[in-house]
Amino acid sequence: MAVSAPTSKFDIVMLGASGFTGKQVLKEALKFLTNFNSLAIAGRDPSKLAQALNWAARPNPPPSIPILAADTADAASLRLLCGRARLLLNCVGPFRLHGEPVVAACVAAGCDYLDITGEAEFMERVEREYHAQAVKNETLVVSACGFDSVPAEMGFLFHSRQWVGPARPNRVEAYLGLESEKRIVGNFGTFESAVMAVKDLKEMEQRRVIRVKPKIPGPPPKGEIIEHQKKIGLWGVTLPSADATLVGRTLSTLTESPHGLPGLNESEEMVEKRKAFWSSVKPAHFGVKLGSKSLLHLFGFITIGIFIGLLGRFSFGRWLLLKYPSIFTFGGFSKNGPSEEEIASASFKMWFIGHGFSNESLAAEGNTKPDTEIITRVMGPEMGYVTTPIILVQCALILHTQRNNLPKGGVYTPGVVFGPTDLQERLQQNGISFDFISKSSLST
Questions:
Q1: CA proximity to 177, closest of 286, 292, 302, 287
Q2: Which helix (H) or strand (E) holds 412?
Q3: What range(s) does the Saccharopine dehydrogenase NADP binding domain occupy (predicted)?
């Protein structure tokens, strides 16, 4: 076990590296070890962290990476940890229970922060409580730097930029399709976050941050809860995820700052690149649907959603759901999580189906129906344990190497911070593709 001098500073500190997702992030980070000047891992139990490092490095011997003790329930340990880090990667969930003390310590220390949460209540709370201080201390706080919600955000930005010239989108709907040769079991932490989100809904609605809404041409779309998209062969049911919320936050920020947010000390080249990027992004109504080739499977998803929605409102119902996750999800989630074979066999496709106008002036004529459809797609390996580590590590590399070109400080979405950077290209080089599929006219 490597020991570091108590005053040494690290470029990257990974908190929670011994958890199931944390181990996968560490494994991905080791591929890029030479890209970081210094990397340390941290958590409650140094012996478990050493085991995780051995696992992540196999079949090679573990590299000499400092192991630091820190506990999310111990504010003093977090202060010491964040005082030694330039950037902290947080993999300790559920974030609604363990995330806020870590953010508070990072903001106080002026240490940049990235995490992999998809918990909307936590993200709204952090923005509400810490944005002003993060701006003052020039600390970047960026949540959802994993499958939630980078494929949705970067996928939307990629799709939006396909509407060139006078063409403008009105509605973009993302259909998430999951594919696997084996039946994959979901991680219990993800299920727990979904159950607890129901409990937080009422408070979140009452305390939601009021945002500037972008101007979108044409009438608001009448989205159906269940839709069938023949071109991609999927049925879709509305998915109450954080993806749509984060895209909305990004578009709200863009409405207030049409050229994006200036960097800490950005180059003239980056200024031009940033302005060109954001001027090509066009806002649209955005939603996400869980897709399935089988309508029967879709009703299975709906039944699970009903269980969570009804039982999640009451403490006894939440206890039942969390005690017996496999029963209430028909084996979809388990406290053991997926096997390595299940992870290796899984992949995702996220289709973006956009309806809009071939010429923006058409939308000004009243209730004109959209006359153009554009389809794009983001696809990649298994979501939680392969795609999420790829995304978090690439975001960390950009923040490490391009800090002067990124916003000075504040609590922002991944889209706002990483949209104009080379994140899309980096993801494509690491197995997550962005594809233009088709453009066609709609009969009106």
A1: 292
A2: strand 410-412
A3: 12-141
Tell me the β-bridge partners of 227.
Answer: 236
Q: Which residue has the tokens 């220390």?
A: 109
Q: What is the pTM of this model?
A: 0.93
Cα(295)–Cα(286) distance, rounded to whole angstroms? 23
Please state, in angstroms and as integers, the Cα–Cα distance from residue 389 to each residue in 22, 144, 361, 379, following that order.
Answer: 8, 12, 43, 15
**CA angle at 150 for the pair 94 and 83, rounded to the nearest 5°:** 55
Residues contacting 230, CB < 8 A, separation 6+: none
**Cβ atoms within 10 A of the Cβ of 79, count?**
16
Instruction: Identify the H or E element spanning 229.
Output: strand 226-229
Q: What is the mean pLDDT of residues 358-375?
A: 86
Residue 90, strand partner residues? 15, 115
pLDDT at 202: 65
Q: What is the pLDDT of residues 308-350, one digit of tens each?
A: 888 888 888 888 988 888 888 878 777 777 788 888 899 999 9
The 8-class DSSP code of residue 242 comes to S
Provide the H-helix boundaries in 261-294. Answer: 268-279
CA gap 332, 191 in Å, rounded: 9
Closest residue by Cα to residue 353 from 369, 375, 372, 370: 375
Q: How far is CA 289 from CA 138, 198, 238, in A?
A: 36, 18, 4
